[in-house]
Amino acid sequence: MSILVESLAIPEVKILRPKKHGDARGFFSETYTERDLAAAGLTLTFVQDNHAFSAEKGTVRGLHFQTPPFAQDKLIRVVRGAILDVAVDVRTGSATYGQHVSAVISAEAWNQILVPIGFAHGLVTLEPNTEVLYKVTNYYSPEHDKGLLWNDPDLGIDWPIGEADAILSEKDKRQPRLAELPVCFPYV
Ligand SMILES: Cc1cn([C@H]2C[C@H](O)[C@@H](COP(=O)(O)OP(=O)(O)O[C@H]3O[C@H](C)C(=O)[C@H](O)[C@H]3O)O2)c(=O)[nH]c1=O
Question: Fewer beta carbons under 10 A from the terminal one: N or C of the chain?
C-alpha cells in the first residue's frame, strides 16, 4: 500500500496520503495508483489531468461542478504552495446537503483530496505561486460547468479571506447561491 486513504466528516470525501521515499537526491512518490484506490473501494477511471497555477495568495477558484452526463470526480493535489480545499454536498436529498468539509492540501503535507460527483469544489490559495494538479473522471464540458457562490452565507464556509481581498474570475463573482441552485444531483 503506497497511499493511505481516510474519510472526512462527510465520508464520501477522502484524504489521500501517498508515501514519499526520500534519499540524498530528494524523493520519489507514487502519487496515484489504481490499486490503492480500489483497495479503498474507489473504482474511478480518470480521463483528464488538470494543472492550475495561481500567482497570488488569496486566489479563489470555485465553487464548481459539472452536471451529468459530464459530472466529475476530482483527485486534487498541490505540488507547490498550499490551498484550503472545500467540498460542498449538492446532492438533493442527502442528509448533508449544503454542508461542507475542508482541508489544507499542500506540497509540504504531500496530501490529496478526493471530491466525488455530487459535490461543488473550490479552493483558496494560502501561498503565492501555488500549483494545483488534479485528475478528473470526465472531460471538460462548458455547457455542464455549473457553480455555487463561494462565500454564500448559507454555506457557512470559514474562508481565511474576505470578499474585498479575494482574487476571483468574473464568472465566480456571479455564481448562484445555494437557495437558487436547481436539482443537479438527486440523492438516491
Ligand atoms: C476546468 C477547465 C477549464 N478550461 C478552460 C476554460 C477557461 O478558458 C480556462 C479557465 O477555466 P476556469 O475559469 O473554469 O478555471 P477554474 O476557475 O480553475 O475552474 C476549476 O476550478 C475548480 C477548482 C474546479 O473544481 C474545477 O476543476 C474547475 O472548474 O480554462 C479547460 O479548457 N478545461 C477544463 O477542464
Answer: C
